Amino acid sequence: MHSETAVAANAPVATKLPAARPPRPSTRPNGQWKIDGTEPLNGNEVWKQVDNGIAVRGRIEEIYSKQGFDSIDGTDLHGRFRWWGLYTQRKPGIDGGRTATLEPEELEDRYFMLRVRIDGGQLTTEQTRVIGEVSRDFGRDTADITDRQNVQLHWIQIEDMPEIWRRLEAVGLETTQACGDVPRVFLGSPVAGIAADELIDPTAAIQEIARKYLGTDEFANLPRKFKTAITGHPSQDVVHEINDIGLVAVDHPELGIGYDLWVGGALSTTPRFAERLGAFVAEDRVSEVWRGVTSIFRDYGYRRLRGKARLKFLLAEWGTEKFRRILEDEYLGYPLPDGPAAPRPKTQGDHIGVHKQKDGRFYIGVAPFVGRVSGQTLIRLADLLETYGSRRLRTTPHQKIVVLDVAEEHVEPLIAALDEIGLSARPSLFRRSTVACTGIEFCKLAIVETKQTATDAILELEQRLATIDAPHPITLHVNGCPNSCARIQAADIGLKGQLLPDGNGGSTPGFQVHLGGGLASVDREEAGLGRTVRGLKVTAENLTDYVERLVRRFLAARSADETFAQWAHRADEEELK
């Protein structure tokens, strides 16, 4: 693989991606509406045309919440419920070895995961408190901040959904299209409108897109999920390279500040980073350009095979030149100006620590353990912020929280108070940079446990590596299955969950290891995939030992200014085991 090619010690890592190939030429249509017509070519496309998911809320409120779980239509349960942020969660006690052998109804519990949609990650303390209260009252006090700025709750019962929606919507929150073949939550810079070094505030653009298109029929039936990321901050803090559409702030030498347009990113089992179209998007054109790209996906995306239905496969067939031409000629009706690429970030995009706002106050980025909080923690967080004069906070694409509008004299007292509820503004190396997906605790696709495994590793590494002097954060991403919700191919150390032989004829939870991946950041010029070494796997039990050994080898072997990713790509395979 290209990802195993060694690089010079101080050269930027620029791993080439394996092609996300379009479906092979066939006499059969691919289900592209503008080419093949709209006749459904698989079961999912049939039910989406019958009812695209928007209307299922009425049935939840009027039928299922009153008659209970057993009254739910199977297609609604396993399909349309997602349009309102609901998935059935995994039944406790089913081990990872049975994930691929049981039918969905055998894996699922009678409880739901509920995803609260938080566009741009923007929350008020009132909204935060309400999410916490919903968690406490209906979700057994569960709450996870996701790496897409949402909050996920668990143990939700269908009977409680009308009251949950009433509470959330009373404070301006929603679960609309939080899952499903729709435009998912819009990632936005967690420091939008407040950072002193911000180029442009994307908040109005995100709100316009949500107002015009969220919950409407126009984009309620896409070939697959569609992910958006928009940032006006030079740290490029919204992981735009792995979104279907990304807009990154740039300063055009003639046209001023606007956005650089990227399309076609996604990881999963066939990773492909988004590509620049070389087009400049002015601030007042963001909504219509977003609509154009999303419409291309709706009209030309492959619908016959769901495994080939993401936008990245269409981009692989067309290339950026054709994609831009179709966008301009068929959907916009005008050419977009050519534009420059954004420069390499100069600051970390996780926003951890204390930073000055443009108004002279401060924002503070804090880290829970791999996004896991609780309803009670969210309630206490809201209370704390109000005590210290703040009423705003943000979630981040790195499973972190940023609190805003803190007066200088309140910074240190608030940091101490936040630390007492498990939110650290000065986290350890791995607490800062570890991300974990939901894992086997709740997810029907997972093979291994993730959240507690990652937390235990962090706590142990904090002790073992307390005295080291790392040159930069080393990202550790832990995923419970091959689908890469935790972005394993784009981490310094990425772990893909699988079962490994235990030496006694059985199996034990473990991970395949990816090394040296990452997105554009202070430490690397551009995105690149992690390296895989044949046979390099680690059991969950030995995870901490392995990470400690790897970090110490890196620190001992690195040359001046060499990053972990650069070292991982040049090191001999034996050094990485």
UniProtKB/TrEMBL annotation:
Region spans: Disordered = 1-41
Q: Which cofactors must be present for this protein to function?
A: [4Fe-4S] cluster
Pfam families from the entry? NIR_SIR, NIR_SIR_ferr
Return the Gene3D superfamilies for the record. Answer: 3.90.480.20, Sulfite Reductase Hemoprotein, domain 1
Q: Which residues form the Nitrite/sulphite reductase 4Fe-4S domain?
A: 180-333, 432-576
The UniProt keywords, alphabetically, are: 4Fe-4S, Heme, Iron, Iron-sulfur, Metal-binding, Oxidoreductase, Thioether bond
The keyword NAD belongs to this UniProt entry's keyword annotation: no
Show where the Nitrite/Sulfite reductase ferredoxin-like domain sits. Answer: 109-171, 355-420
E.C. numbers: 1.8.7.1
Q: Which residues cross the membrane?
A: none
What exactly does this protein do?
A: Catalyzes the reduction of sulfite to sulfide, a step in the biosynthesis of sulfur-containing amino acids and cofactors.
Family per UniProt? Belongs to the nitrite and sulfite reductase 4Fe-4S domain family.
The entry's protein name is assimilatory sulfite reductase (ferredoxin)
Species, as recorded: Cryobacterium suzukii
